[in-house]
Fold each of these.
Amino acid sequence: MLYLVGLGLADEKDITVKGLEIVKKAERVYLEAYTAILLVEKEQLEAFYGRPVIIADREMVESSSDEILAGADKTDVAFLVVGDPFGATTHTDLVLRARSLSVPTRSIPNASILTSIGTTGLQLYNFGQTVSMVFFLETWRPASFYDRIAENVSIGLHTLVLLDIKVKEQSLENMARGRLIYEPPRFMTVAQCAAQMLEIEEEVKKEGVYTRESLAVGVARVGAVDEKIVAGTLGELCDADLGRPLHSLVLLGRRTHDLEREFLEEFAVDKEKFASVWKRDYEGKQ
Amino acid sequence: MLYLVGLGLADEKDITVKGLEIVKKAERVYLEAYTAILLVEKEQLEAFYGRPVIIADREMVESSSDEILAGADKTDVAFLVVGDPFGATTHTDLVLRARSLSVPTRSIPNASILTSIGTTGLQLYNFGQTVSMVFFLETWRPASFYDRIAENVSIGLHTLVLLDIKVKEQSLENMARGRLIYEPPRFMTVAQCAAQMLEIEEEVKKEGVYTRESLAVGVARVGAVDEKIVAGTLGELCDADLGRPLHSLVLLGRRTHDLEREFLEEFAVDKEKFASVWKRDYEGKQ
């Protein structure tokens, strides 16, 4: 059996009791380590599980999935995924590959940022589609997220923006020379995301889908003891410092509930500003 | 401290290791038992925790929250929620009440149907807002879900429909006579949901947001060993039997990915029909 086991968001104890039992008895244990990361190191997981953990990078999962699946028709293989196993497309691929090899699969669900974002007090049924924000490069500033946000905004919904992480990345030079030297991991911050969003709105699209005064919420380390929430305008969030990764951002839709305001205002960068923008642009809107 | 502890979806072992540690040391343990249910009885939870569990019904949570919060400024109280703690609005209320009493709170995230629905192979970033479907009564057939679905459909997105559960419900007669006699619990099935959706489309709204030939996916007992997935047209799902609760339904948006088709077709009521409707109405649509 191939078990896809969700690890939740923060540390080794966010695995479920059921998931832990599977990990402890599996023949091999892989950790998918490129679509998201836990806030603890692999060694801490290994100590907690009492088992070695094999890091599965993108290349292994996408090109060498048969290696992961080897023998899984007879013994148990655990494939650990940060968050929920079905948060990322790539795991659907792995299950399809297992199916074609007649390897049975089972998924052990866990928390995902897609629902844990409810920690902001924003109502989950008010969210539209989720978008991703990648690190802009000098010559590559993809704006496709903007059209998705525009769709959500058109029907008044919040948008969760998931922020880029870069792990095991080679510099162009090292790649060209075939040197397996990797850059230090990078994680996009709420401030970087807010700035990129405003750049696309103000310099490229100019459709007024959102402005520097639109309200947004930044979160960091959701589910951890030092979870942090900051609410403010996109302009304000360009200067917000939420500390170490992982960060996410929510752009508010106009269809809000007063409970959302009440919950969020405690986390406002500037409570007065937050209240006045809320009253002007959000309160009572449908 | 008030801990809101997510229990996940299926049984007592879906709690996280962190959540279980909190439950074992809390002064009192409440179980919210009206927005969702686990697939096991309270006694099974108590045996697993080694602790008594107090059932918190809607009335207690909404009207007597101070009872739950009593002493939580000095000792630990665990409030268990099926799924993720922030899946339902009512828990935001409880946290706000705690805040006003200076009771610190912490939430322990867990799996929610909002992400575990990914078990269908449908891509989570293709989902729009979530809607709820209540049991229709003779004279009360609320159609507000329809307008929300219409919004999602207009931008090509999938819609997760959460199905009504009725627990601790009094008959009108018993209520009138003040008798605290409760009806047996009721859980809406995928078939009932599909039929109610078609009734509103065909007899009330007639806007063509979806038809009897629209593709949908029914799921039951997500995360449990006997999890079941059935894909088909809304018409076909009117006759689908997915067994015991809980059920949920997804109406597909036209913006699909071929991986979704490949994953789903294994679960189709009628594979040929599924393939032909997909090809006609979904494939390559944006």
Amino acid sequence: RTAHALRLLATVSAMTTKTALVAVANGSEEIETVTAVDTLVRAGAHVTLASVEKELQVTASRGVKLVADLLISDASLRSKQFDAVVLPGGMPGAEHLRDSQPLMDLVKRHLETGKLIGAICAAPAVALASHHLLNDVKATCYPAPNFRAKLTSHAHIDDPVVRDGQFITSQGPGTAMAFSLALVEALFGHEQAEKVAKAMLVTLPAVSKR
Amino acid sequence: RTAHALRLLATVSAMTTKTALVAVANGSEEIETVTAVDTLVRAGAHVTLASVEKELQVTASRGVKLVADLLISDASLRSKQFDAVVLPGGMPGAEHLRDSQPLMDLVKRHLETGKLIGAICAAPAVALASHHLLNDVKATCYPAPNFRAKLTSHAHIDDPVVRDGQFITSQGPGTAMAFSLALVEALFGHEQAEKVAKAMLVTLPAVSKR
Ligand SMILES: [Cu+]
């Protein structure tokens, strides 16, 4: 009877646990990468940090060395579905994300199945827009002219965090916490986002919605 | 003549380059750790991430794996002077910092030579106050009653970042950026802190000073 109850509990837990994949490359912005992982884990998500490089260990944009959980080319990822896929910014990190065939395949597959895609800083312009994935999507990115020029819609470009359907985009290190909490809100609801924000001593900012 | 100019330049650069040591342990808060390193590097500091564990690779409080530059027990650190020593929070990370004899020796040596000591979240209470290093110092920490009780001075406890002489203390992940920029301001001046904040899309917050 206890065994049955435990089995049931494990099933329910597996059904309700939210999962996220955060991609990382050499030159990814470390504040954006780590803030996303940390905040999602605090909310209760199971987070996989996946390296698009040939090795698990990457050197982020300001020299912080991060060790990923697995390589984006890992066979186990070919059929796995996450509730959210998150692309941090930083240069040349966002270019490495853009140039990773397995990552872009995974992003497109998750778009088709209605999952959440998060991108911040250089990533919306460099990784997503370069693959024409932000056409007609209201989005923002780091406010550099060469990044902004790649976004087709400029309506919400000045907001720190923008949600439009499956996409949550944001601007840079200073908005990484708001971005991460917007991901938490989308996956777990407003109450959980408030709870996580409070424990982190963050005042939950408004997210512009289409 | 060029050689002479280059030698001179190298000397001036070595004289003016600011250095910081950021300590890290298993269970350190990864946002606090990485935000300090990233922001100081952006400002132009040479930052050494030093592990108080037996290995360079540590697992931070929410599972992010970070690789330090060297071990705190490294012989090269015994005589080295940094312009700032930074202790991130996170539990049990702050306890591991507290229990590291080489780290606490280094902190005490830097206090005696007038250097800057930064501590955030659990670290002011758990790592510094436990060694009686915050007696009569205005400081703040994560607003948990058991941490607050360890601080002797409660005057500035509600401010996100507090500077008092050699000490800069702060409260948690949500104040990590303000804390890191206060370190930048103390080392490089207000103008450089404004410049770094602007590039990171952060509005520079006020730091309460004694
Ligand atoms: Cu960036």
